[in-house]
Amino acid sequence: MVKGVSNPEKLVEKIVSSLNDLSGKGPSQDPEGTSSKPNHELCIREIQEKHLWHFSICPIVLAHIVWLWYKGKLSTDMKRSDLYGTLLKERWSESCDKRNSSSRSKYRDIISTLSEIAFAKLFAEDENHTIVFEIDEEKNVTFESQKTASLESGIISRTNVPGESPQYYFLHKTVQEYLAALCISKDILRCCLHIKITYQNQRRESGTSLSEVFHFLCGMNSKAAEELSKTMNELFTDFCDREGYSSMAVKIHQNEIIQGQRELERGDNTGSELCLQHIYIHNFDECVRGDKKATALERYYKTNQSSVISLHIRQGNTKQALHLGKKSDKNVLNLRKFKGLKYLHVDDTSFKDIKGLNLNHLVECSINFRTPQQAPRLTSTFYKSDIKCLNRIKTLELSNLTDLNWLKEGSEREGIIDMRRLANLEHLTKLKLEKLPHSDVVNLHELRLHTLTISFYELQQAPQLMSTLSALGTCQNEREGIFSHLKVVHLKHIRMPEEQFSRLSQSFIKAGGTSLDLEYCSIEQEDDVPQLQNECEHQIVSYDCKPSIELLEVTITVEEFIRLIDHVTRCGQSVKCTLYVTTLESNHAVEQPAFPILVPQPISADYTTVLELSGNKMCTEQICQIVGRINQLNHSVTLALSFCTEISDEYNPLRNQMVPPPNPSQDCTKHIEIKYMNISEPLFWYVATSAIYRGYTCEISLCDILPSKVPSEDNLYLPQMAPIHSPAHTAKLRFNIVSIPHDVVERLACQAAISAHVVECVLDKCYVGPPPDVWSLKEKMEEDPAIQIEKFKFEPNSDNPNSLWPESYKADKTWDIRFKAKAKKSALAESTAEKPEVTE
Fold it and tell me: What is the pTM of this model?
């Protein structure tokens, strides 16, 4: 079963050449009318002109199309069903009409039998036996009488394994789907009901796998196609109700129906209309241009609106509205006729209002205005409706809607949003209120939400909201209160003191299986407030979903930044902490804080801490402190730095004692990854020596390692110590597209050699400069018996430099170097290495 070829043009050339070697002539002629042998370029051009080149992704079908072209059997804009019908008829003619066996079987009878088999197997209860299957020949007497001719035609094939029943399969899956469509066209209602029951009970997917059968059917029988389109929409609705709405899935579903409509229109079925109950419109104006330029999507949008189940409009503009009437309505989206809507998504719209929205059937309602809007007609809909009419709703998302007074009950204070009215909606699990012109949210605890997004238009303290979310402070390893159901929280434009953020982040980590995202928030220092102590150290929580903390463009004090990483790395469970474009604010009046030294910890089941820092500005000391903290930990850690800016200072981490973990674990692994950065030489050496002596994996890509301005012998003291990791943990250093001084490579090899254990080092497409001295580097490395050079090759690269490549990287002078240090101390390296003033 061939799945694809890398060069379909070459395949066409080989097929045409082989056909030319056979007797007979093809369809092409020279200008004078005399016959000439066809050429592959003409074949490719005509297949493309007949709109059949998309079959090039399927080499088996492409080969048959070339064969039909050679025989002059292709027509312009050929329906898919006609193409496959011609293909099978020609196979039969070539394989069976000339054999004696064909006299006992007629083509029409065999195709009828195979179509029944194709349908039964394609929509069998066991999905694992739909393509390769068994046929009970005793029960299927018709197939038994036609088996020989079916196999001779090549439409169906058989494999025989000794001791097992024969296994059958069709020429290609699309051939089976074509034959299944033939079966449906003969017994529409029975087959569509069988498909629906099979998918609802066994497949439980959206019905996208029916697309090929559906497209074949559109070219065979318009009534059958209409019925199957209804079934596909029902299956897709069931899928949305079960798995949740997906805009990507809707676009795929809609595209299948529209392609089917085009297939219908290739025949005499222009009056037929397929069913499309799930509509996605990327540009609203393009869908309401007028009847003269009507598109298939526009027709679906304008007709049968009462049957539409889901409607997704993105980037709507204000030039047109669905129902043109009063001029004042030109900026209003009118949904009056969409009575059965269950899923409404209006994204990034410049409409000023929405009218006619029916709330009774809504399961998801997401409305995102491009700019702040009062939207009086939309809010009037909410005002006039009993909140119980939203009893089916699971997701409610509103952005840039300035009037939310319809949520209020009683005499609430101005500027405060009260959630009590929504507490009556028992199925509401996802709530998003963005760009709120308010100052706080209260009574959130009365809702049973799984996902919450709260975004204010400007920075707000929102004390009651924050108090509710950080109320877990005294819970011990149990999901209590709001955390018994809340899993994902996204907050934007909130100011909070350090103590409140500490309590909030620790609450989410304690709860386990939760995610906290802060965006454009400010974490500020507060005078005379006692700092919250870490309260959940070594509390292993066994949740499948691991907690995560993410900060995006958040301003945070250095003290709280260190406190956060300290807590994340020693809380006793796997946590992912991500900080993007974080602004660190220092208090210059006090001494800069450092990570506390870890006290001995009990050995427990291994877990992994993931730290990702991207786009942050940090001084050398701060980055080294993070790496130093990793050195102390006795569990697995992954540290990723990308697009960060290192602010060089006079800090030299190698002058300080490198403290090993109190209880080194033999099972934990450490991984450091650095991308798209300029790295100072002190930082590089601290990371590299940590990796070498502790058995880390270290990957550095698309970076500049900046040479120190001070001679190395006066600036850096590289440690010389015994390895403190398991011999099984081979230290692995990988450099990819890195600009690195040759003396740094030399000292790196030296450190690997004196480490007394295996160190693998790979430099892939690295600029090691200056180039004239690189060969002398190779000679020095070869003199050391502890170093084994596996590759040392100059690889000139003519590619144009990428804008993200290191500034000093020279693409045309790159080296590929691979060496390994043996697990044996090198006398030569020991004699040439510096004697550090540092001890382990």
Answer: 0.82
Can you read off the two tokens belonging to residue 466?
Answer: 């924050």
d(CA 576, CA 465): 24
Reported as a single tens digit per residue, the pLDDT across 495-516 is 999 999 999 998 888 888 889 9
- Give the CA distances from residue 201 to residues 117, 214, 232, 491, 768, in Å, rounded to whole numbers and listed in that order: 21, 20, 15, 40, 62
Domain boundaries, the chain: 8-179, 198-273
Helix (H, G, I), strand (E, B) or coil at 483: helix
Q: What is the DSSP string of 606-620?
A: --EEEEEEES-EEEH
- Find the length of the chain: 840
Q: Residue 138: CB partners within 8 Å, gap ≥ 6?
A: 144
**One-letter amino acid of 518:** L
Query: For residue 352, what is the DSSP state?
Result: S
Q: Which amino acid is at 520?
A: Y
- Tell me how far apart the alpha carbons of residues 727 and 264 are, in angstroms, rounded to a whole number: 68
Q: Beta partners for 270?
A: none
Closest CA to 297 of 258, 336, 270: 258
Exposure string for 818-839, b = 16+ CB within 10 A, e = fewer: ebbbbeeebebbeebbeeeeee
pLDDT at 819: 93
d(CA 613, CA 606): 23
Q: Give dist(CA 309, CA 670) in Å, integer.
A: 50
Q: How far apart are CA 781 and CA 779, in angstroms?
A: 5
**96 vs 98: CA distance, rounded Å:** 5
Sign of the Cα torsion 601, 602, 603, 609 reads negative
Helices 173-186/222-243 angle, 10° precision: 110
Q: Please enumerate in sequence order all residues whose Cβ is within 8 A of that of 271, keeping only pairs 6 or more positions apart, or say none.
A: none
As to burial, measured by CB atoms within 10 angstroms (0-12 exposed, 13-18 middle, 19+ buried), residue 208 is middle
**Residue where the block lists tokens 């997704």:** 312
Q: Kindly state the percentage of the chain with pLDDT values over 70.
A: 81
